[in-house]
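Lab notebook, bench 4. We co-purified these components, and the gel suggests they stay together. Before we commit to crystallization screens, I want a quick structural picture of the whole thing.
Request: model the full complex, all chains together.
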Amino acid sequence: MHDDRDIIKAIRRQPEQGFRQLLQRYQQPVYWYARRMVVSHADAQDVMQETFIRVFRSFGQYDERQPFNAWLYRIATNEALRLLGKRKGVAELSLDDTSDDLFDLKADEYVDYGNVEAVQLQKAILALPAKQQIAFNLRYYDELSYEAIAQITDSTEANVKANYHYAKEKIVNYLKTND
Amino acid sequence: MEKDLEKMSKTMPYTVPEGFFDEMEERLMQEVAPKKTKSKARNVVLWTSLAVAASLALLLVLRQGWHKTDDASFEQVEMTFNQLSDGDQQLMLELFEEMDELDNY
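Here is the predicted assembly.
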């Protein structure tokens, strides 16, 4: 698996070859990150596609002083919020949004409802406000640092820690009451 | 509290169609790669159009003084004409005939 520095170098030297390396490294993490937010397979596919096309086209704007994964996840986050915002009829969803109808485990062909524990956990996550969902998902599933999550969400490390803490508390309460 | 979540599996209930990621990788590669092909194709069209336009201009200029044209300039026209595609040559001949007909009125 290529590391971020190799990918950046490759994209600068031979964009197409570098882009393939980028896809091999990040296609699945970005898809699953998007999927946890937008739920449906088709929407996650759209978010992933838009994210990588945007990354490829705006690669010249990437500032190497910031971690590459934070830049990439920030684009993916914006694309997911844009898609969810479209549903609500706004340009982009706010990180504070908690609309129940947006974050819901809808009927989807590609959801295994037989995995009860996993379904319950996703329902608990989807019941959180966007900023807590994002902090929780990036820390719990993607195992990113608080610093990287702060860069992705344009926040502070302290804020991210607080959001992660609240998220965990709410998830555990949800699981207890919906057991 | 932390322990409860840690005990839980990180497995998600979500699935994807078989071969989805391989297919997406290829689709995304095509999404960024064809730009080059398209611009190459556009360049070919552009250069062909420019060649036709230049040839037309040359023929029009020469045609004004057709009777004064010497052998050297006629050779140049012939060389330019031969470099055109069959379709463009046909187009040039048709235009030339139309112009001749107009002159005869």
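The longest helix of chain B spans residues 34-64. Worth comparing against the SEC data before the next meeting. Chain B has a mean pLDDT of 70.
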